[in-house]
Amino acid sequence: MSDANQTLQRYKSTCQDLGFQPCKYILAVLEKEKKESMEDFRDSMHLSLAGNNHLMTDIRLTDQDAQTLHKALSNNLYVTTIDLRYNNITDEGAKHIAKLLEETAILRELNLMANDIGPAGAEVIAKALQGNETLVNLRMTGNKIGNKGGMFFAQMLQVNEALENLDLGDTDLGTESIIAIATVLNQNSSLRALNVNRPLLFTHQEEPTVHFAKMLKVNRSLQEIHLQKYDMRDFGVTRLAENLMENFCLRYLNLSCNRITRDGAKALAKYLKVNTPLEVLDLGFNRLEDDGALHLAEAITTYNTNLTTLVLTSNNIRSKGLCAIADSMKFNSSLTQVYIWGNHLEEPAAIAFATLLESGRLESKDTDVRPYVVDGVTILSELSHQIRRHYYWKPSYGDDVPDPKT
Description:
By secondary structure, this protein is an alpha/beta fold. It contains 13 helices and 13 strands.
């Protein structure tokens, strides 16, 4: 099967062979692809079957649909990416998806975000990936695979050499599985991006953070890592910063929603002064305050020339710290995106950022605030411009529609 029409006919015949009624949603998507491919030739297809696409469907796919998709796509050479987010696929459906991963010769991206897959489903998918050589992007976000499921993915990373992006955020990973993943990445040389946000940790010793710090010291492939909601304190972020000084691969570091204060910001400022290739630093929803912002501003002003994006939302920063960040942008030409909403946006800070926007040094699309004047007083309003605003959802129409594969 190498085109939309053959894929559609194969799906219909598969449903007939299995004795199932074809899913109207899948039929509609395949019919739409067939029509569009007749007008504009395509050699591959992104099969988007997100359950929260209300313009296309009011139903969610189930395990039965996963079975028919496995049978219909097992030898398919046209569908290269599949989006199954926000459906009702359970461990039973995961077995069929695992079989598809074992048999596919072309599938490169699979999104299973926010389904009902548990540890048993994680086991079969992880085992299927041990022999898979095509999949480069897998999202398991929001599936409660738990600590046991995380261990299966750690085992998979020891063998798989094709996967480049793995998202296990919000999957209830435990301390053991987090440490296991960090340990495996000491040797893994294929993974480029890892999301292990919001694990369930019952420790105050910050062992997971320390293990990731040691891993990042020796890992030479990872370019993006998300460590959100780790209850990370200054001790952990200091260990992280110390080890990152010897890492010249990481480009995206997400430390948002932790407990980092001015001392942690001071350690990160020392890291930024080394001028490693880090381009995106997300410190949103921490406790940096003015002192932490001043440390970062100093590093940005005089030492760093690679950082392009800095997120400081909701950090209890007042005018002194925010004005220092604004002033640093006058001397640093590489920093182009700054997000500050949720801090104390007093008039001096509002004027500083209004000046940056009016001068063109900072563009409106690259920040989350917009100035306006009331009775001679400059005030900042909020814009919905976050760096990961399409992570959990994406609009179906309008000017803000992202790439279908994101």
